[in-house]
Amino acid sequence: MSTGRSTAHTCVFWDVQDCPIPDGDYNPKLVYQNIKSALADKGYCGKVNMRAYGEKNKIWDDLLIDGITVIPAGDKVARVDSMMTDVLFWALENPSDYPLLFPNVMVVSKNITEDTDFLEILDLLALRGYNILLADSNNVASVKHPEFVSSVWLWTCLVDGGKPIDISQSVEDDDKLKQKELSRAAK
């Protein structure tokens, strides 16, 4: 797993249907700035580009700001397929220069840890020296994350520019919960 601070390029692959811009005072420019800030706070200080995936009639012109590329991609399966393909092409264009440069791939999507094909691709990239970052709209603290993932955010926290969850803490909490369940079952 690639770790540490990086001035390498980061590309955010964002499923806008799964993780929409929250209602209220948010707009695409603010979301983009907050994500950049959250990444910088974690030590990912290089250039940040975003690719927003969603149904063509539901992606609005406001997303067309500098730094965000809008990709109409249809239903969930089409969006995930498009994101996987784009992650691979982006990795070809932004090779890791291990151990000097660790490009960063961030995937923002609901239940991404359940998509085994996508996880295989991300695992292979991690083995090649990429930092893998995830954000999910669900309660990711209760989800066991693959070892190759460097950081995980809850979408509502990321969109505010907040900190990622403590992956080791969520794994410890999960282990404690399993132990409790086993001791209850044994009684």
Automatic annotation (TrEMBL):
InterPro entries: Marf1, NYN. Residues 10-140 form the NYN domain. CDD domains: PIN_limkain_b1_N_like. It comes from the Eukaryota. PANTHER family: LIMKAIN B LKAP, MEIOSIS REGULATOR AND MRNA STABILITY FACTOR 1. This is Uncharacterized protein LOC104712459 isoform X1.
